[in-house]
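The methods section describes the discrete structure representation at length, but only in general terms. Each protein is reduced to its one-letter sequence and a matching series of backbone shape codes. I believe one specimen quoted in the main text would settle the matter. An entry of this sort, consisting of the sequence and the corresponding backbone structure tokens, reads as follows.
***
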Amino acid sequence: MRRHRNVKIVATLGPASSSYEMIRALFEAGADVFRLNMSHGSHDDIRKRHEIIRQVEKDLGRPIGILADLQGPKLRVGVFANGAEDLVEGAAFRMDLSTAPGDARRVNLPHPEIFAALEPGTSLLVNDGKIRLRVNACGKDFADCTVEVGGTISNRKGVNVPDVVLPLAALSEKDRTDLEFVCELGVDWLALSFVQRPEDVIEARTLAKGRAAILSKIEKPAAVKAYDAILQVSDGIMVARGDLGVELPVTSVPPIQKRLVRGARAAAKPVIVATQMLESMIESPVPTRAEVSDVATAIYEGADAVMLSAESAAGKYPVEAVTTMNNVAMSVEKDPTYLSIIEASRVVRRESVADGIVAAAREIAEATNIKAICCFSQSGTTAALVARERPHVAILALTPLMSTARRLALTWGTHCVITPPQERFKGAVLAAVGAARSDGFATEEDQIVVTAGVPFNVKGTTNILRVAPCDERLISRVDPE
């Protein structure tokens, strides 16, 4: 099954998309990676969805990526005696550690670590920023505030603290349990929520022990400030615009999104743009024009993937949402303007032999009638470097490892093929030709570019580039055993 687009689609699974029939339909409609949201569903639910994905993968013969999204620490107020209260602008309101039910003057905030970090003048945002409080005075167990933006506050609403770096680990006890569970289950990517500093990523990587790649969600102002350091220790990035739009001025999110995408592209690490991309399709079979434009913008920016959340997890039209995203991607990538924008935003990086090889592969492919760039990759690094070049031709990533193929399902433009381990370059060329022809990327009259590293099956040895005919007889004449 070949995709006729380069950007990848991530679809979240949930109550609306838990059956074999639906998950298969989502993949056939265009989903490349499935997201398992650890904030919802039991371990038994997650296990069943994982098993179904792997069965679909087996039945259709295509590698499918699985992303487990850890919940992260959730900061919430306690409960109210009346269930809810209306806070009026200008009124005084206290948050404290008392477990007594709240009222219109105070409520429990069971997070001493927040009080330890607060300072007078700090903002507290409640219920996705609908309520804004300004701290006037604070101590180790209280914060006296003024209501700057009023509204209804009710039981266990979320709290955001945008102005300070909280002394909180990105992994709660629930996250640690979930991380071990999904790593043993066999997911390909771990999305880490509430990242504030590179140490958060390093901790998750230590616990994962190489069983899954680490994707950092950038959703805190602190993470934006420390982005370069976080990117360096991450395997991928998610631009999680939901909390970014709560904790930062909403007008700052688009330029931040562009900077995060370009940074990840330069580092040859996959980047997902997420949150509310087709939000109206939770209830409607068609999206708004603004939503289509939003998806298109992420694709024009060169994002590796765009993501559906509630649209596919709990919405009424999950297949239609994936189909819409697929159609938008195909339309954008056919636009001549898209190619010019991608070329203008291409980052030139020539720091290694591998960088030079993949750059040459792209230039040769685009200057001649080459149909595909075929790269042999043990770890996926070579394929990621080729994808960073954003070539105008198809990228075939050939690997003997299913785990590598599944992780590359998130990387721009890569069509992954499982091949036997290769010992000689001629065998690699023949395998690449076979894959290009059998998967519909080339005919025997065409040519492809093949990149590989010798010795084979050693990480970081990309050092060969070959233009090869797709006629095995011609290869045998040029390269006899």
Remarks:
- The two ends are 33 Å apart (CA to CA).
- The chain has three domains: 8-72+170-332, 84-160, 353-478.
